[in-house]
Amino acid sequence: MKEFVQEVLEKSKAIQKKYSPFITIPEKIDLPKTKGRLTGIAISVKDNICTKDIQTTAGSKILEGYVPPFSATAVINALKEGAFIIGKTAMDEFGFGTFSVNCAYCIPKNPLDISRSCGGSSGGASCLTLAADFPHIALAESTGGSISCPAAFTGTVGLTPTYGRVSRWGLIDYANSLDKIGCIGKTVHDVTLLLSVIAGPDNYDSTVLDIPKEDFTLYLKEKIKGVKIGVPKEYFENVNEKIVKVVWNSIQKLENLGASYKEVSLPHTKYSLSAYYIIAMAESSTNLAKFCGMRYGLHLPLQGNYDEYFSVVRANGFGEEAKRRIILGTFARMAGFRDAYYLKALKVRTKVIEDFKLAFKKFDVLIAPTMPVVAPKFDEIEKLSPIEQYMMDILTVGPNLAGIPHISIPCGSVNGLPVGMHIIGDHLQEGKILQVAYAFEQVNK
Which one of 143, 169, 197, 407 has the largest count of C-beta atoms within 10 Å of its C-beta? Predict the structure, then answer.
């Protein structure tokens, strides 16, 4: 095992030189202390998930040098099953972005074409997953699409579980009511295995669901004959026509396996992006208030009064996008604006959930494109305004707002670049989406 771990470490360093998926690679990797379901599997950890004795920055300069004295519950659960940690993967600062270009340390490059993005905010996780030629599964995190987007852009498999299925203890928060720890892997089996290990109750997290641990790999053996698929028409609007065609072809492959499909409407989809950004920014501006240079991370010489010191630290530590979201979020929850923006957005969120609940009375899963475009080039991203960048999340924010499970799997290509298909399920129906995803994967090899 020692030689194998050392070989993985050397390969990881070589991948870093070529594609920059890591923020931190430890000089020495701790060997697994136990054997279990993840024995022989390297786990990378998104840099907003705490790892004991390994720097954890959430992609921000304001946390440079922060070494947690503990590991997140999800990390502990993986280690108990024999996994070993190979490093912390690059991400947009605090999860603020769709292309991983807002990382303060490095920008991961797509192994399929280094001039293109891996997606965000879990871009480093998907980059490494694609590039690794050793057994590896990534621990990632999604707030509004940060697992599905990079999975789609790199042709990997990204699983985002039901909100509360996996403990958030040890996660550096972006928006508490939206954050979910999930997985990115090469195959449906990989992410299913890791979810089986990390999901379950936790005394440290009061928001985690008190339901027993489950072996989700058992669902992969089930056939999908009789499965009812809903195709939300709103999720095919303003999407690249070639992507639409690839996804429809994939739905027809599922029909050949015995599933049936029918178009459905989710009428509040058009409001979901606005509601998501108001809620997420309001919550993030509150969460980021604790980064003031006093307790952890960036610390400067103590000069001036508290407000002056606080302002200098935050001006130096936060990047442009983080500052933008702090300002917008603070505005949305100010006296006089809270009712007009934040509370209204919460009401829209309820309507979005109701749309999904109504659809799941008729259908087992919903299927749509994951992203409206294939992985863009970095010079194309530079030309996008902040609003245009936010618009890229139009297909992923709905399921994240609702807190329902979803998985992005590769289903074809456009101009040689992968297309992701989103399979969305009702709350706690991970088994159903994994069953459909695995069945499709078997016929799409």
Answer: 407
